[in-house]
Amino acid sequence: MLEKLKQLNKEIELYDVTDQAFSPFGRVIAGLDVSGIIKAAGEIRYPESGSAYLPSVAAFEALPIAAEIRDGFFGTLPAQIGYCWGHNRLLNATEWHFSSEVNVAVTPVVLILGHVWDVENNVIDASRFKAFYLPAGTAAEVYATSLHYTPCEVNKEGFGCVVALPLGTNTPLEKKADNPLLFRKNKWLISHVENRSLIESGAVAGITGANLEIKY
Fold this sequence. Notes:
alpha+beta; five-stranded mixed sheet
């Protein structure tokens, strides 16, 4: 699968998540039993089109893995375990949190990642991003300094990715923030300049260059 994706996406730096190139962005998590959460995710129906995101899924948070993630990655602070799933092939935007994010690939996915230090005056060129392939069943920590957004599918069935974060992340703000990039709680966001719908919803247009697309 990875070699096929590389051949079809030669304009993007594309690596396996186990490659050393991933180390500045995050790390693969070994020894975490993700079978139960993958099974639970399989019960969630796909949206008709586009992608969907739930910050918190009760069925996930009732599993033993929830306590492992809370204690092992968020230092026993309250955490939420949600789900991002559906259909997406584009960079479209990028976000970051002041905390790591734990992802579990329910299906094979590609993450398009960048670094917060490459953002200058709320602008970053798409050429600064790299793409990483996560096989189904892979758990990975994505560091707080890593720019990321909706995972990309690698087949027509779509994608599914479990997303664990500190409780309240990605939920609506009570009042408008002074920082124009603070889009939701603990969510700083920059839209690609071509993503008109996101810009119209209040996101700053700051990703220039090609809107990277994962072909399969």
